[in-house]
Amino acid sequence: MEPIAIVGIDCRFPGAPDTGAYWDLLMRSGDGVGEVPRQRWDAREFHSTAGSEGRTNTTEGGFITDPDAFDNEFFTISPREAAAMDPQQRLLLQSAWRAVEDAGIAPQRLAGSPTGVFVGIMGNEWAQLHLTDYAKVTAQAGSGNGYCMTANRISYHLDLKGPSLAVDTACSSSLVAVHLASNALLSGECDTVIAGGVNVALTPALSIFYTQAGLSAPDGRCKPFSADANGIGRGEGVGVVVLRRLADAVADGQRVYAVIRGTAVNQDGRSNGITAPNRWAQQDVLGAAYRRAGVEASEVVFTEAHGTGTVLGDMMEVKALGHHHGGRDGKPMALGSVKGNLGHTEGAAGIAGMIKVALALHHRTVPASRFAAKENSGLKLREHGLRLLKAPLRLPATPSVAGLSSFGMGGTNAHAVLESAPPHAARPRPRPAAVPGGIGSAVFTVTAPTADALRRNLLAQADTAAARRVPVGALSWTSNHVKSGHRYRFAVAASDTAELVAGLREAVADPDLLARLTGLPAGRPRTAFLFTGQGSQYPAMTAGLYRDSALYRAFLDEADAALLPHTGRSVRDLILGGDEAVHRTRWTQPALFAVGYALGRTLAELGVRPALLLGHSVGEYAAACLAGALPLEGAARLIAARGELMQELPEGGGMMSVRAPADSLRERVAAEPLVGVAAVNGPQATVLSGDLAALARIESGLQAEDVRTRRLQVSHAFHSPLMRPMLDRFALIATEVGGGVPEVPVYSTVRGRVLDGEAMDAAYWVEHVGAPVLFADAAARLLEDGATHLVEAGPQPVLSGMVRLLGRASTAAPAHVLPVRGTESGGRDLATALAELYRGGTDPRWDAVYAPEERVPQRLAPYAFSDEHRYWTRDPVRGGATAETAGPAVVPQQRSAGREQGREQAAEPGLPSAAVAVLDLGRGRTDGPVARAALEAVGQVGGYSGAELAPHSRLYEDLGFDSVMIMELKNRLEERLTGLASLTVQDLLPRLSSIGDLISYLHEIGAIAAPGHEERTA
Fold first, then answer.
1. Is 101 left (phi over 0), alpha (psi -120 to 50) or beta?
2. Which UniProt keywords apply (predicted)?
3. Which of 26, 811, 835, 915 lies 20 to 30 Å from 820 when distance is taken between CA atoms?
């Protein structure tokens, strides 16, 4: 059999709310058994006449805490539907989500895939309680009950297209589910499967059965293979594993807990009673599993037995195992059963055992058996080649093989053979990527559907990260791939794990900081790159980023190599060496081009693809490269020639900034033939350039009129008539280089608008030398075209300030993102910029952010679901209850101030007048009764209070409505409103995007409050 990898695990068992706590419980031989919670049934009443008909002999068992808690809002399930759902469905939904995350997969990424779901389950007590009171059966009760729905719920909410089925073979159900899941992988039907089991004990029915059958332990504890063994103790819980073919898991770099080598299932047929165990069938299923796994019995180091702690069951199982292991001289196989810690978890027993074995192989330690101290001598374990572990067993570094048995009460037996994961899969190698990657800092991300959920999960991540010694890069890389897909996007840059933990906790504690670090993007961003021009340079610019970021180094080196044939000296070395020559024109222009090109390419490689491009003066060369209008080699030749030819021009020119509109200076400029308008950077920001004496005359006149001026420190009069002597020589080179039409929109500062099918060819670049830089016009057009994020690609912020002045009148000002902030900038600033872009809706290429050795999956805190909402029966089952009286209506409950507080939903939820006013004002309506009736109907169908509803609430996405609920909504509306005689569901469907749309539609068709409802809705 091709090996199957266990790549994800999640569970909740008595005394163990998560996987880590489960392993801790096992390693300390902990006891998860206690008194039956009053929430379930009054065990003392049922125990009051122990041994008599209809009573139990115990008041104890293994129970999980808070089985009524369910984060229905996370799964967009209405309160009314959640209240009707079997808690087994709820537990599986949350556990499946966390197991997929543990597999290193963002659950949303499985949407549409042929992922299968296989669930083992044998109890359906919720249906027994709530489908027998026929007057209270609702539409939601159908989907809220039934074995099939435990699997189908997972497939539905994760949008999985593979097989989805529930399995009931009694106590072996969940191991049989794993067997079927493995076969689905082996047949190629699925590439990923979610397999699990669940059991929630809601009534004493099985406890009574075990007592009457003589199978129940008086202390409620299973004591497997112990001299004290005296029966079964009930337990409950949920466990889920994610399985993949080992080859696929290794190829995708997933961490593997353990490997399933082989499984087998059989039936004992007509034996000595349908509920009695059969030794021969058990030994046959063991042999079949060994053969399928390709192992000898002597290779099995330990076996997790079915081990219920009944006299007959333990004896039969030992004899079956002894058939295969009795000849092990001096090396008896270790034997144990987790039922000693939890009780018999019935339909979840097989998955509880599988998770124990997988964790034991993963940690290379087999936990001691809880009741091993008093071994049942009558079982003669040694003669059968077996031993109970009185202390944990350390496994060797070499591969170890383990067995796992699970036997159903009706005779369906299952066995699995597992093996420790190959070393390269247990601790995966770094995931390969097409780029070298690495920006010198990490970006930790978490998403959540609501602000409250985000805070809760940030705190969970902080606590987990603080408790482990894991590099921040690997933690963040994992968070980027796993904790994604929800509306609220949190992102923060961090240089080490301690800083990350402190930052997460600070964000949770400071609402303003959390708001700054969280985005709620409404759609895809339109990102613009702005490339700075001459004047932004300084010695050693971007040296810190070159030091920190392998990605930036690669692209600056690439630009340097393209420039070197034309400059005769390494521009990169000049930049990084802090040479003051960077201020000389012949070096300034190629140096700025190299920096702009490297930044633009780095951002693009990180997944920040520009939708719009703009360059100020020489910044347009980098923009042209990114737009595909110039090849790198051509741009490098042009910019090097431009800088050198300008450097050769005679000195004596200058530039002057004037705080005045360009139009107000036209006459003065026209009067000076050697002066021109060099740039228009804003409504009151004009730059003049030309002969020094001519500039002085203009300056004198302006100062006399109290117009502010400032001379710029430049060597030449750029973008002025004094550039004309170089144009012919430059034109020859430009003609040889050529240039094409941009593939990405370029907002030209020569034209002051976007280039519309126009080539950035030789004529363009020659004109570019002397033409005014129409930055204000180009930037204004860019803003008008919907740029949401302006990323300034240059050695320091220059253009952002100019654009802010232009955008003051805009109702939706874009975000300004600065990958480099100045002389001290390094990888941290780039990471901070990437975090901001992610919050705005960009989906980076996360592999490129990290060095290869950081691309290793790590275990993060699982998703922390809310426990605020509680859904349970109105009252626990009481002693003497009959089928007719033990079926109370299901009601939502909520936790208040840390304590459970039952809250029965009113048949007609009250609606605050403020809520209706908001609705009416939001729609421009004053007909309160119609809005109130609509709110009342929506609230009643979904189980929402008026305070939970708003005009923007979407019926499908936010409130969890489906076709059945829409039909009921139509009926509720017809009860409350007149004028709906011809209303059909087909009429309603197009108008149900939100509550506000529904109310607007009701007004349009002339609906009014029905008689008898007007006063109540007034």
1. alpha
2. Acyltransferase, Antibiotic biosynthesis, Phosphopantetheine, Phosphoprotein, Transferase
3. 811
